[in-house]
Amino acid sequence: MIFGSIIFGFIIAAAVAHFAKHQRLSEFMAVIASGWSLASTLFLALHIKNDGPYKFINLFTVDSLSMLVTLIAACVAFFSVVYAVVYFRKEAEKNIIGQSRVRQYFTLSNLFLAVLFLAATADNPVLAWIFLEATTLSSIFLISYYSKRSTIEAAWKALIINAIGLLLAFLGTLLFLSVSSGLDGIMNWNQLLANAAQLNPVIAKIAFAFVLIGYGVKIGFAPMHTWKPDAYGKAPAPLAALFSGALLPVAFALLLRFKLVTDAAVGSSYSNTLFIIFGLFSIFVAAFCILTAQNYKRMLAYSSIEHAGIMALGFAFGGIGVFAALLHMIYHSLIKSAMFFATGNILIKYHTAKIAKVSGALSIIPITSVILLVGLFAITGFPPFGMFLTEVSIASAGIGGSPVIAVLMLILIAVVFIGLFRQVSAMVLSSAKLADKTVRPGENGAWLLIPSVGLLLMALVLTFYMPDFLHSIINDITTRF
Amino acid sequence: MNEILLQLGMAVFCLAAVGLHVVRKNSNEVFLYGAQSLALVAVLVEAFLKTNSLPLLLIIVVTLAVKVIAAPLFFSDLLKRHDIKFEASSYASTPVALFVLACLLLFVNSSIFAPLVGLSGAESVYVAFALWLVFASVFLMVNRKGALSQAIGVLSLENSIVAFGIFTGLEQSAALQLGIMFDVVVWLIVASVMVSMVYKHTGSLDVTKMKDLRD
Q1: What pTM value is reported for the model?
Q2: Mapping DSSP to helix (H, G, I), strand (E, B) and coil, where does residue A225 land?
Q3: Is B187 in contact with A133 (Cβ distance < 8 A)?
Q4: Higher local confidence (pLDDT), B208 or A452
């Protein structure tokens, strides 16, 4: 019942935002729904160790993997909604958007969250595909939210690329289900895994290639990543945080489920090789795009692509790499969302997303600047943040079997750091240019800072203290790879 | 009778796929998509005649309503509203496009895809054609410059995958197929609105004119 109430909460919040005329009521309901989802997923996470996987109407199962990604998604969703409430009020004050636009955001974002949770927990691969496709459909009009020529372009690109990718993933899914011929009813993940040995190895390989390309579009593996910088760059900051912090882990989890099936059918070397190829190429593309980025939101999108690549390498290297990749997923979602919120604050203050047009941020919005700087060091793997440990662990997992790949990964991570530091310091640490001297110093309000600070603190706390329930969930997933 | 229906359906399906690469008028593209969807219905009807499955009948009715009637009407209305006639241009010329289609046909009949084509022993020729249709649809989206053509390419790809699923016996339960159909309907509505928005903001459906995103 508890899982049903999460979905019901999001749908009610979406309906209220659509039908109610009061913006405050829409905001209130969105906060309640996301707060309830966070509390409920925490409750489920605390009980999953003793009670085992949680089932809902036989079509949805919350096991360790779906628990982890729904927990991440719920956490990011809650902070994103809190941030969105104040962010859109600020935009409305500046006449960038009207009240109906705010209600449109909360309608579509709540629908997006509902289908995202359903995709993460769907017990059946086709059902998971249906809901993941629905995340695209519910978010397209949020990418084109500001109705400008460039936002329409970004939305169109996202629509077409995601449609092609997900249809190829569907083809791959159908091929995986070829093992089900002769079985009655809808085949769930466990049945698929149990019957994986019966899959024709060549079909399993082709199917996994299709699924990797398809879900790789959602995750943002290069070269299927091209919609991401555009969409993240044009979407409102709270949505970009949801894409990077919530959608990416859910899509990754679905891909990992297919990896398990493929490994059972043909051994792990095939899927690991593909993960290494796509992972390393993603880090490579992201590193050089970050160096030349001109838009700070696009820059963070490339950073997400880089981290998707690092996670892929962790899963490919195996052993401690898997544990580290799962931790990396948590840290990335928390830190990247905080950074997207910080870029939202910069956008409100400077009215531009161009790096070259932002200067002297430290003197104009000092707390936001510090958040961005802390986020920069955290996301690039500086101690004491957890990403230092996860990146070192992933590299050490790979150094035995694939030393060249591991070393290349570390070199590219260094390039990413140089690129990000160069771009962020140009905005934050430089002295204000003449044009920026007209920008009134001062933060946009405490509530635009609290979500970022909260997420960064959470990432820091999780570096030094891992709650038992979370440790047990990650351990359980690790043993399956 | 069933075999004739199946052969006729597949012939129309494949001809429509080739036609989508050849025609230059948007209205012709919409017509060909409707024809392709009708061919898919014929394939589904053939499967129904074999199985007498009532859920499959429901799927046929929904497919007919959504893909054969609603989708072409949606797009035709869009074309009339904006008076868009000759925008289905492509990157590759027609002979090159036809050559690529021929290469794709050779590719799906190569040893790489032999296990896939062999998934259904008796209907392996149809499986090979369905696989070719999948790649032809992807090529359509890559090759065409028009936003409407790209949208039709996505829908054509979906048709091809459904046909592939039928021939390989991998079609899903009725509930899941309805879920997929629901996604298609929503996708269609979203794509139509987006095509309108693209036209409104750029004055054209030519995606090569979309250059505002470049850094």
Answers
A1: 0.93
A2: coil
A3: yes
A4: A452
**CA A144 – CA B203 distance, rounded (Å):** 17
What digits encode the pLDDT tens for the residues A368-391? 999 999 999 999 998 889 999 999
Q: Which two three-digit tokens encode residue A37?
A: 């989802």
Tell me the DSSP string of A144-166: TTT--HHHHHHHHHHHHHHHHHH
**One-letter amino acid of A258:** F
Work out the minimum CA distance from A202 to partner chain B, whole angstroms. 7
Residues 349-388 (A) with a CB less than 8 A from some CB of B: none
Structure tokens at A394: 């992933």
User: How far is A139 from A96, CA to CA, in rounded Å?
Assistant: 20
pLDDT in tens, A149-163: 889 989 999 999 999
Q: Which residues 129-188 of B have a C-beta within 8 angstroms of A?
A: 134, 138, 141, 147, 150-151, 154, 157-158, 161, 164-165, 168-170, 172-173, 175-176, 179-180, 182-183, 186-187
User: Predicted confidence band at A481 (pLDDT cuts at 50, 70, 90)?
Assistant: confident
Buried (b) or exposed (e) across A24-44, using 16+ Cβ within 10 A? ebbbbbbbebbbbbbebbeeb
- Arithmetic mean of pLDDT, A390-408: 93
Q: Is the peptide bond before A238 cis (omega within 30 degrees of 0)?
A: no
Alpha-carbon distance of A110 to A122, in angstroms, equals 18
Region class of A63: left (phi > 0), else alpha (psi between -120 and 50), else beta: beta
- CA–CA separation, B47 vs B43, rounded Å? 6
The tens digit of pLDDT for each residue in A68-107 reads 999 999 999 999 999 999 999 999 888 888 888 899 999 9
Burial of B124 (0-12, 13-18, 19+ CB in 10 A): middle
Instruction: Say how far residue A406 (Cα) sits from the centre of its chain.
Output: 24
Q: How far apart are the first and last CA of chain B?
A: 59
DSSP secondary structure code for residue B88 in this structure: -
DSSP secondary structure of B93-134: -HHHHHHHHHHHHHHHTSGGGHHHHTTSSTTHHHHHHHHHHH
Among candidates B115, B170, B173 on the partner chain, residue whose Cβ is nearest the Cβ of A202: B115
Any residues with CB less than 8 A from the CB of A1 and at least 6 apart, and which? A56
Q: Are the C-beta atoms of B53 and B83 separated by less than 8 Å?
A: no
CA angle (A318 as vertex; A315, A324 as ends), nearest 5: 65
ipTM of the complex: 0.89
